[in-house]
Design goal:
Layout: H1 6-19, E1 33-38, H2 50-68, E2 72-74, E3 78-79, H3 84-93, H4 97-114, E4 125-126, H5 130-145, E5 149-159, E6 164-166, E7 171-172, E8 175-176, E9 184-193, H6 199-205, H7 213-223, E10 225-236, E11 240-244, H8 256-265, E12 269-272, H9 283-293, E13 300-305, H10 307-317, E14 323-329, H11 338-344, H12 354-359, E15 361-369, H13 377-387, E16 390-394, H14 407-413, E17 416-421, E18 432-435, H15 441-444, H16 452-463, H17 467-471, E19 479-488, E20 495-501, E21 512-515, H18 521-530, E22 538-539, E23 564-565, H19 576-586, E24 590-595, E25 600-601, E26 603-604, E27 614-617, E28 621-624, H20 652-655, E29 656-658, E30 665-668, E31 672-673, H21 675-678, H22 682-685, H23 698-704, E32 709-711, H24 718-733, E33 746-747, E34 752-753, H25 770-777, H26 779-788, E35 796-797, H27 800-816, E36 820-821, H28 828-846, H29 850-866, E37 870-871, H30 872-882, H31 887-895, H32 913-916, E38 921-927, E39 930-937, H33 943-951, H34 954-960, E40 965-971, E41 975-980
The structure holds ligand ANZ and zinc ion (ZN).
Ligand ANZ binds near residues 421 and 505.
């Protein structure tokens, strides 16, 4: 027999498998399906890494196993092909990213095929190909049309060297992950996906999927659910209120007199105007009246009810000064409704310049009554939208706020700082407030704050810092006190100072906190530094019995545990957990759940990505590209040199277009999408990869999805997994799928380290190239070696010596073929080993314990080596067990037997229960090390069962009498020692 020569057989079978389409998923099969998926790779210029090989081999073993078990397996591969490296390479070398990418794909393909991975190549996809990204763009529009994609100005991490926006996780210690340049913060108009709307579903979904616990924990932390309360702290500053009544009303009607009194009793001045001809009003005349009567300044708050809102907006449009705030109470504008214009404006045509209004007020609030009989919700929404107003839904005492007293109106009329706290029980101990440097209230305090220059400088400085820098533990806290303005603690009624400090983040909660230094570490540290008072309001239950109250001693540490309330008025003595809701309610706060999860920023100022399918028109605004015009292709007349603007903006052919709605001149959105968008839905495309009408048909989705096994590294996948789950939840909600989790079972491969235990990296020169290993030892050896390195999920170092071990094992198997005979009798002993091997390899593959499966195959091979002859039947059992691990050698040897078809479509062997049963054994039972009896147990009996049996023995019971079992020591098959005391 010839010596084992992998080169010869591997190439041969590779070609044969490909020619016979052996691994293509069968569309017509009635067998149960199984979808085994690898995280598709980014085709980098460096080629495949041994870490890829590890994960791909594991899922390949599983896919092959399922095929042999009679499943119709879908096991596809494709390319996550958009991304920065190809673009950066283009900047350096001027080689088009498409060219680099296609070349890299070619190389990856060759490498993957050489490894004998059983992919269905007929379904290959690449996210950079127009037939694919057409549907990525479709998904953008799908989200947009469902209100889940929106544009807003946002602070983003900006790398001045890469000239691009970075995601938070691309910022490492304040530096760009790629080029190590210091990252700065910058304001840009960006597209976002509203993933936050699904926070709760994304959290709950984790309960029902089979994923590694650590990965689920990671997802939970990323979503970061917190339960607490929102509480308002009135700002102790005097304003000038202007109240405008509605149609057929007057300052003497509705809530006006009451509100005026309430506001005045708080020290504000109030001007309640009597608008002319309220019974049959002319809004234009009323506007003129307001402008004549009122002197607007930065301390003015205009509160307008109903028709008064139209008057207010129009008046503010031409004040010329910026007022503090405008509050609409169930208001509306006229120009959106021609009938109303006619009815209420008799003197002139009436349109309102929303932008001017926005310019002339600090902020606009829209207060809407849930049960409003006059203003419907859509009108309220539209009004809020055109004015950029914050819309708040409340319940009026009487529909449309016409009661004599309307507490919600008062509540929102008063300027206050809203905080989010998880500890409303500590409210009596809140001794100061902190605003994030970006807090919108700050701008309105410019005239009031005496040390404005200092505040401004601080805010400016905070801008340059990343979130991580700001919140790092142990970092010294900094901040500035706002001189000349205070807030009122709503529980104690006392005035407390307001600070601006960067340890409070603008994007979490409400961007403001109540600080409780006695019970929060960060607040304590800050209070010590700025000499702010510390007030204990929760004590450990045991401290309550002591006479001396804590605050009489010097407080030197923070008590952050639950306990019993003190110094909290009528809540003294209450348990802190109970006090949370009670105190929140006492001050009119609302219990509220907050999430750390932010909306997903998808705009990238880059070339090599899927263009965002939006067109901007002067007249129509943002217009989605009609579906029939997809895909929006990437133009080739661009320069890749980054300038901070998207490269697409400079392409003439791309940039200037015609508005699909009005036909006027318009321009295209020039940003591309985050590549995570491409990878959020690719697993659907594999089900129906050539569909030109849909991203995948419902029928094919139903046939193949969800994914039964998803395999990939644990690093860098938190976001990918979250985003993919988000897409699936949205699809589910809109009836595209009958499942709402895409990946039923997830497994990770561990890192493969270099032989020196360090991470493999080009700069360290310790990278192992799989091509070389395949060239020297063969793909079967590489696969077997990597699977034998250790448990799949742990990190493990490369070891050249052990590769040779794997190769020798396969050589040994090869040599056994010579001993195979058609006659001969089955030896009892070997038969047992063979059946135990079937049992173990089967359950090990099911449990992803590939290293132990291989070691069982080695035991079996060793036994065969001792034998003079091997029955053909037994030999073929062994080859089938080996096939998923070493597909080439098993195929070659299998075809050497009378079998005509591939081993990879043969059926998986079954074991005989009678042959795997381990013999009973008699073992000694000790008590405290002395043998006191014996029991007879099976070879695989577990400790607790052995103990139970031992406890039945009278001689053992005697020695345990009056004692307690401290522990047991169990050596399977040998001894059970019971330790008592
Ligand atoms: C008062 C208080 C007292 C708080 C106390 C804690 C302990 P998690 O659990 O992470 O949700 N906080 C709220 N918004 C913040 C922001 N934008 N930036 C920084 N910190 C913020 O944390 C919630 C707690 O973090 C909140 O509860 C608030 O401090 C702070 F003994 O309020 B706490
Ligand atoms: Zn238009």
């Amino acid at each position: 027999m010839e010596a084992y020569n992998p080169k010869k057989i591997e190439e041969k079978w590779q070609k044969e498998w490909e020619d016979s389409s052996l691994y293509e998923a069968d569309e017509k099969s009635k067998k149960p399906k199984s979808y085994v998926l690898d995280m598709f790779p980014y085709p980098s210029g460096d080629g495949l890494h041994v870490g890829h090989v590890e994960g791909y081999t594991a899922s390949d073993i599983y896919a092959r196993f399922l095929r042999m078990k009679g499943k119709n397996v879908l096991h596809p591969i494709g390319w996550d092909a958009f991304g920065l490296p190809a673009e950066n390479y283009a900047i350096k070398t001027k080689v088009h990213p498409r060219e680099t990418t296609e070349k890299a794909i070619e190389n990856f393909t060759r490498q993957i095929k050489s490894l004998g991975l059983s992919y269905d190549w007929s379904r290959e996809i690449g996210t950079h190909r127009p037939e694919y990204f057409k549907w990525t763009q479709w998904f953008f529009l799908f989200l947009y049309k469902n209100g889940l994609a929106y544009k807003k100005k946002a602070k983003v991490n900006w790398c001045p060297s890469c000239q691009t926006v970075l995601a938070n996780e691309q910022v490492v210690n304040g530096l760009c992950e790629r080029c190590k340049t210091e990252v700065v913060q910058k304001d840009l108009e960006q597209w976002f996906f509203k993933i936050t709307e699904y926070a709760e579903q994304l959290l709950n979904g984790l309960e029902k999927i089979d994923w590694p616990e650590s990965t689920k924990t990671h997802q939970r932390n990323w979503i970061g659910k917190s339960e607490g309360a929102e509480i308002d702290f009135p700002v102790d500053k005097k304003y000038h209120y202007v109240l405008l009544h509605g149609y057929k009303s007057s300052p003497k009607m509705n809530f006006h007199p009451w509100l005026k009194k309430e506001l005045e009793s708080r020290g504000h001045t109030v001007e309640a105007l009597e608008l002319p001809n309220s019974q049959d009003p002319d809004v234009a005349e009323q506007v003129e009246y307001v402008l004549k009567k009122v002197t607007f300044d930065e301390n003015t708050i205009v509160l307008a009810h109903s028709l008064g809102s139209a008057v207010a907006a129009k008046a503010i449009e031409s004040t010329g000064v910026k007022i503090h705030k405008l509050i609409f109470v169930s208001g509306f504008l006229l120009d959106t409704d021609p009938n109303r214009v006619e009815k209420y404006v008799k003197t002139a045509p009436f349109t309102c310049d929303y932008e001017k209004v926005k310019e002339n007020v600090g902020s606009i609030l829209y207060l809407y009554d849930k049960n409003d009989a006059f203003v419907d919700e859509n009108m309220a929404k539209r009004t809020s939208e055109v004015l950029g107003a914050e819309m708040v839904q409340v319940e009026a005492k009487q529909s449309h706020f016409v009661a004599k007293e309307e507490p919600e109106v008062l509540k929102y009329a008063i300027e206050s700082v809203r905080v989010f706290t998880t500890r409303p029980d500590t409210l009596f101990g809140a001794t100061y407030l902190v605003l994030a440097p970006e807090h919108p209230l700050l701008a309105g305090l410019k005239e009031t704050v005496q040390n404005w220059k200092e505040v401004e400088k601080y805010v400016e400085m905070a801008k340059g810092k990343t979130e991580l820098e700001r919140t790092k533990e142990g970092k010294e806290k900094t901040g500035v006190k706002l001189e000349g303005v205070e807030a009122k603690n709503p529980a104690t009624g006392e005035n407390i100072p307001i600070y601006v400090a960067d340890y409070v983040l603008s994007q979490y909660g409400t961007g403001a906190i109540m600080a409780v230094p006695a019970h929060d570490e960060r607040d304590f540290e800050f209070a010590q530094k700025y000499d702010i008072s510390v007030k204990t309001v929760v004590e450990a239950p045991e401290d309550r019995t002591e006479n001396a109250s804590k605050d009489e001693k010097k407080i030197s540490e923070v008590y952050s545990e639950p306990g019993v309330l003190v110094h909290s008025g009528k809540f003294d003595g209450m348990k802190s957990e109970e006090a949370k809701a009670a105190i929140a309610e006492f001050v009119g706060g609302k219990m509220k759940t907050t999430y750390k999860l932010r909306d997903w920023l998808v705009s990238r100022q880059r070339y090599w990505g899927a263009p965002i399918p939006i067109i901007y028109c002067e007249k129509c605004g943002a217009v989605p590209v009609p579906e029939k015009d997809l895909p929006v292709l990437l133009p080739d007349d661009v320069d890749f040199m980054p300038t901070g603007e998207s490269p697409l903006a400079k392409s003439k052919t791309f940039h200037d277009v015609i508005c699909p709605e009005c036909g006027g001149a318009a321009r295209r959105e020039s940003d591309t999408m985050d590549t995570f968008v491409c990878s959020s839905w690719y697993y659907y495309r594999f089900a129906d990869p050539r569909n030109e009408k849909e991203f995948a048909s419902k029928k094919e989705i139903k046939k193949w999805l969800p994914v039964d096994l998803y395999m990939g590294g644990a690093e860098h996948t938190v976001l990918h997994l979250l985003y993919a789950r988000f897409f699936t939840k949205v699809l589910h909600e809109h009836g595209y799928t009958d499942f709402d989790e895409p990946f039923q079972k997830l497994r990770h491969q561990g890192l493969i380290l270099a032989d020196d235990g360090r991470k493999m990296s080009k700069s360290l020169g310790n990278v192992v190239n799989p091509d070389e290993v395949v060239g020297t030892y063969g793909a079967d050896t590489l696969r077997t070696y990597e699977m034998f390195m250790g448990p799949i999920e742990v990190s493990k170092p490369w070891n050249d010596g052990n590769i040779i071990g794997a190769r020798r094992f396969l050589e040994r198997v090869w040599r056994q073929a010579e001993k195979v005979t058609d006659t001969g009798e089955e030896g009892e002993e070997f038969s047992q080993i063979l059946h135990r091997t079937i049992k173990k390899v089967t359950s090990d593959i099911e449990n992803f314990s590939f290293n132990t499966a291989i070691s069982q195959l080695m035991i079996c091979a060793n036994t065969m080596e001792q034998m003079e002859a091997i029955r053909s039947e037994d030999w073929r059992v062994f080859l089938r067990l080996l096939a998923p691990f070493a597909p080439f050698i098993s195929e070659e040897l299998w075809r050497g037997t009378p079998e005509m078809d591939s081993v990879h479509v043969a059926s998986w062997p079954e074991y005989d229960e009678a042959k795997v049963r381990e013999e009973k054994r008699r073992i000694a039972v000790q008590v405290n090390g002395k043998v006191r009896g014996t029991i007879e147990i099976d070879g695989d009996t577990e400790e607790k069962d052995a103990l139970e049996q031992a406890l039945q023995l009278p001689e053992i019971q005697r020695h345990l009498e009056g004692k307690t079992v401290k522990k047991t020591i169990f050596v399977p098959g040998k001894i059970l020692n019971i330790v008592v005391g």
